[in-house]
Design goal:
The protein is α+β, with helices and mostly antiparallel strands. Helices cover 59% and strands 10% of the residues. A hairpin with a 2-residue loop joins strand 2 and strand 3. The protein is elongated, with a radius of gyration of 27 Å. Its main location: membrane. It is a multi-pass membrane protein. Residues 163-353 form the ABC transmembrane type-1 domain.
Length: 364
């Protein structure tokens, strides 16, 4: 039995490997996951939430370059290295875009950057501010590969940090939906009768409420925030899992191996968890892949409506909300770049789901 199971797994894996778009999408998802975990290591702006604002260089095109003066702060940060690596640096330094500068004796004179042909303000600071280092080490040319948003923040950094929310909401939401859906579907399908009727009533009532409306209601009840959105999305996605598990268990519980398990005196919990569920997980895996994509879209919609991830937290949906009016103002890339990111990740999960369906030979 074990040899047969391994053979079936190997056949499914070989079939999946032959699907080019499925394999490509899988590696793309792995890449996005890797970037989302180590976002601050890749982001040019490694401050918390990539929230370093420079209003004088707002809404600049991709590839924009400017000379940046960093004025060190006298405040000391007690932040640990691990905290900086995974959650960003608590940046107390001040960054100022400048056009030109010169050093005279014990003073640094600089001209602040001004766009649209305007003349910036000329200012000066004492050199003793730059302790133990040369002034040139605090003045560097900075390139914004994706340009800047309307607050002058690095758009590439915001995209990289925002991937964390869009990616991990899929994991949390699918995890919650699997726990609730598999439990409810297993109980309804295995025991039947009034228990099945009651659970199906709950499923039908939940199913009849529009998903986005229910998420909004749950979010408002739990409050606005990061984890509240994760929980709200997960609580709305268990219905599909429950319906599939219920249907599979209804057909599987009449199989001979279940009858043999009952004859051996195994209890219901062991029969469901050890014998039935391992044999019906193929369609559940396919639905989970689709739910990943749905969770990303729902979170993006919530952030667009302003009840998802709250500022200054980076979120792809919130970026579209902040910049969708720039589409008609000649700077559509501010909204298109996060939109393309959402589309690419959702499409990757859908293609992986289709590839898994073909490999596992799940029939609709």
């Amino acid at each position: 039995m074990s040899h047969k199971s391994n053979s079936l797994k190997q056949l499914a894996l070989q079939k999946f490997k032959k699907n080019f778009w499925g394999v490509f999408s899988f590696y793309f998802i792995v890449l996005v996951g890797f970037i989302s975990v180590f976002a601050y290591a890749f982001a040019p702006d490694n401050s918390q939430y990539a929230n370093q604002m420079h209003l004088t260089i707002h809404s600049k095109k991709p590839g924009f370059k400017v000379t940046m003066l960093t004025i060190p702060s006298q405040l000391e940060s007690n932040q640990s290295g691990i905290d900086k690596f995974f959650f960003g640096k608590q940046n107390t330094d001040t960054e100022i875009p400048i056009s030109k500068y010169n050093v005279s004796r014990d003073t640094l004179n600089y001209l602040e950057y001004a766009s649209d042909g305007l003349e910036g303000v000329e200012k000066s600071i004492p050199l003793n501010v730059f302790t133990n280092k040369k002034v040139d080490e605090y003045i560097k040319e900075k390139t914004f590969l994706f340009g800047t948003d309307k607050y002058g923040r690095d758009l590439l950094s915001r995209i990289l940090v925002g991937a964390r929310i869009s990616f991990f909401i899929g994991f949390v939401a699918v995890f919650i939906s699997l726990i609730i859906g598999i439990f409810m579907g297993s109980v309804a399908g295995y025991f039947g009768g009034k228990i099945d009727a009651f659970i199906m009533w709950i499923i039908n009532v939940t199913w009849s409420i529009p998903t986005l409306l229910m998420v909004i209601a749950i979010t408002l009840a739990l409050g606005k925030g990061f984890w509240q959105v994760f929980i709200a999305v997960g609580l709305t996605m268990w219905v599909e899992v429950a319906r599939v598990v219920r249907g599979q268990i209804i057909s599987a519980k009449e199989m001979q191996y279940v009858t043999a398990a009952r004859a051996l005196g195994y209890n219901d919990y062991r029969i469901i968890t050890k014998h039935i569920l391992p044999n019906i997980m193929a369609p559940v895996i396919v639905i989970s892949a689709a739910n990943f994509a749905a969770a990303i879209l729902i979170e993006s919609g919530l952030s667009f409506l302003g009840i998802g991830a709250q500022p200054p937290m980076a979120s792809w949906g919130a970026m579209i909300k902040d910049h969708y009016n720039y589409i008609i103002l000649g700077k559509p890339y501010l909204a298109l770049i996060p939109g393309i990111c959402i589309m690419s990740l959702v499409m990757a999960f859908m293609l992986v789901g289709n590839a898994l369906r073909d490999a596992l030979d799940v029939k609709a």
